[in-house]
Amino acid sequence: MSETVDENESTGSAAPSRRSVIGWGGAGLALGAAAAGGAAVALNRAGDATENVAAAGGAVPFHGPHQAGIASAVQDRLHFAAFDVKTKDRAELIQLLKDWTRAAERMTLGQEVGEGAYGGLPEAPPDDTGEALGLKPSRLTLTIGFGPSLFDERFGLKDRRPEALVDLPKFPGDNLDRARSNGDICVQACADDPQVAVHAIRNLARIGFGKVAVRWSQLGFGKTSSTTPDAQTPRNLFGFKDGTRNIAGTDTARLEKHVWVSGKGAEGPSAWMAGGSYLVARRIRMNVEIWDRTPLAEQEDIFGRDKKEGAPVGKAKEHDEPFLPAMKPEAHVRLAHPDSNNGATILRRGYSFTDGTDGLGRLDTGLFFLAYQRDVRKGFIPVQTSLARSDVLNEYIQHVGSGMFAVPPGVRDKDDWWGRALFS
Amino acid sequence: MRAVRLSVVTAAATAAALTAVTGCTEKSDAKGDAHGAVSVVAKDDSCEVSKKEFPAGHLELAVENKGSKVTEVYILFPDDRIVTERENIGPGTKAKITAEVKAGDYEIACKPGMKGDGIRQKVKVTGGTTAKRSPEMDAAVAAYRQYVQTQADETLPKVKVFTDAVRAGNIEAAKKAYADSRIGWERTEPVAESFGDIDPKVDVREDGLEAGQDPAKDWTGWHRLEKALWQDKKIGDREKQLADTLDKDLADWVKRVGKAEITPTSMANGAKELLDEVASGKVTGEEERYSHTDLVDFKANVEGAQKSFELLKPVASKNDPKLVAELDKQFAALNTLLDKYRADKTTYVFTPYDQVGKEQQKELSDGVNALGEPLSKLAAAVVK
């Protein structure tokens, strides 16, 4: 995307364009999209493809001040799992977190767990399950989080529950399935190859048997937002570009402001979270059958963007600054925009999912929404409160699963481990 | 019941591994063909084996199907236990079968059309390459063999209480005796299943029948009677006949138990297989879908696994004390969990599985995984 074009367009952002004058009914004319032409789109596609090919085999560094899998470039696939801790022994839980960290270090490098998938004692099952043999690291990232339920009496963590790790309020329209919600620990595995992501969760679950048990898990494909805004913005299953204005992984200032927990004056129950973040996971079912019967103009009005280019109402280009008053008052983009929520900004990393059908001939499909922020009370909660109340999109979606997790800072080096600051 | 031949395959692989580990196996010299393989020519009415006697150790059969039907070829122990097998050898195709064999008598069988007993050739394996075992291991195997025999012996009278009730047309008495009659079998299932032909007769479920098998005629055993008692709620002539058949088939099992091939690793893997049985059939409620007595089988499977483990403990503790401690802990945890479902620990009266809630089933399943995973490492701890 050319900077010049962006600037030119954004200078006009204060003045309503013809589109917004026409109003919501004018959706579909998409003047800006036409002006942008197909060349830009083609260019973007090529750019994105090159980036992916170059990166597909690559390994994302596991060690660092922040965990990978938050601000790092979003991969194509997801396997997310929430675990219940079964052991009551704090030392055993700590040992598991150490074992998991060592396994994660190896897997993110594309290496086998333990002594590998073959060549060991013939009488023993191999340490590694083997299905990722011969596959590249595929930019695998493993990101751990701790749910509110971990901070009960069991492990003496009650005093260390951060204030920001609140229980999410009930939002209007929620229809949450307990069997797909919450959990003591979560692990987000993202990779460009689904087999690599699935392998990672499977091996961690295996290492954890007896200490933790999988509570629920979710596969995701087709990232629905990007932390590399220069690349083509992905589309959700409603066919719309989502995450256009997401926080870029390179935008240190916005990350510090909205995503990373500050280390300044770190004391009290949240001190161990310095450099961490808070994750909200929501399984959002989409009624795609109904959506697909919805006229294009209405679809575009609901989002507040045009379908082809992704430009906000009245604007030409996807990345143009939205002029919110031009959108319908209940349009999704308008309600979700920071300007409508006192500046609340979250980093989204969601994925589409399709888990077969629901037995009624409808696809069990939707968006597995993942959002990282410095404080959910200033991030997800105000945004979702406003969306749940008024978003016209609610007619087509339902929140059916939910989880909230404190995501600790990164693992510094080979001696460090997931959650050390919390347990030390 | 599940993969019928699992134990034997495991036992054979274990025997192979033991000899391999001790380093006393050598490939047989050029006896059959240039590569040391024994050739087997299978036709529709013959099964020609190029040699009838070969040295112990690595045995390779080069099979060629010159017949018109798909065939399968087996290497069998004298009591029909399978050493190894190869199915689906199409007409005009070749296949290789390998096994590690100890000295003794065997049979090679071709089964044109993959049916019946097959066309058999007696063969002899000579020479001493039997793996040496420690006295501790021998003691463990001997004690386990005795346990298996006792379980089988004690099962017959309990089965008779059940089958007598069926023969008397007494539905309530039969229902009462049903679960109890299965406990000995469930405790020693991997050994029982190693006789490939008994398990399908006594413990198959309706969905285990093959295409072409008629449930009315070909379905026999406990679960067929279970369906009659709990679902159809009637005992007819056919059921009384089936009670006789069950007695007969289980008497056959009791007779053959003594000959079962048992090694320390097959004991260890058998323990793991018992947990696999729980994980695949009991924890889902599939096994006892009419009577819902799954927790009785569950308990019996765990008891059988624990017996193997206790007997192997002296050996395993030396090699992997951490694993043994973990197994002690997980066996105790699972038993405690199971005890929540019976009011009186001296009986095998458990809560019917259809009254166990989804969350409790998940808790049981988590407990099984917690034990099954470390249990899968027991065999390695035994041979290390």
What does this protein structure show overall?
Chain A: It is found in: Cell envelope. Chain A: Involved in the recovery of exogenous heme iron. Extracts iron from heme while preserving the protoporphyrin ring intact. The complex is a heterodimer of chains A (424) and B (384). By secondary structure, chain A is α+β, with helices and mostly antiparallel strands. Helix content of chain A is 27%, strand content 18%. In chain A, helix 4 runs antiparallel to helix 5. The longest helix of chain A has 26 residues, at 31-56. The model of chain A is unreliable at 1-55 (pLDDT under 50). Chain B has 384 residues and is an alpha+beta fold. Chain B folds into two domains: 11-126, Immunoglobulin-like (Sandwich); 135-382, A middle domain of Talin 1, CATH 1.20.1420.20. Mean pLDDT of chain B is 86; it is low at 1-35. At the A-B interface, loops of A face helix 1, helix 9, helix 12 and helix 13 of B.
Q: Helices, strands, pairings?
A:
The complex is a heterodimer of chains A (424) and B (384).
Chain A: H1 3-11, H2 18-22, H3 31-56, E1 77-85, H4 90-108, E2 141-146, E3 185-191, H5 194-208, E4 212-223, H6 252-258, E5 277-286, H7 288-291, H8 296-303, H9 332-336, E6 347-348, E7 351-357, E8 363-373, H10 380-390, E9 397-407, H11 420-423
Antiparallel strand pairs in A: 1-3, 1-4, 2-3, 4-7, 5-8, 5-9, 6-8, 7-8
Helix pairs in contact in A: 4-5
Chain B: H1 6-22, E1 38-42, E2 47-49, E3 53-55, E4 57-65, E5 71-76, E6 82-89, E7 94-101, E8 104-110, E9 119-126, H2 135-167, H3 171-187, H4 189-194, H5 199-202, H6 215-218, H7 222-232, H8 237-257, H9 264-282, H10 294-319, H11 321-339, H12 358-375, H13 378-383
Parallel strand pairs in B: 1-4, 3-9
Antiparallel strand pairs in B: 1-2, 4-7, 5-6, 5-8, 8-9
Helix pairs in contact in B: 1-9, 2-3, 2-8, 2-10, 3-7, 3-10, 7-8, 9-10, 9-12, 10-11, 11-12
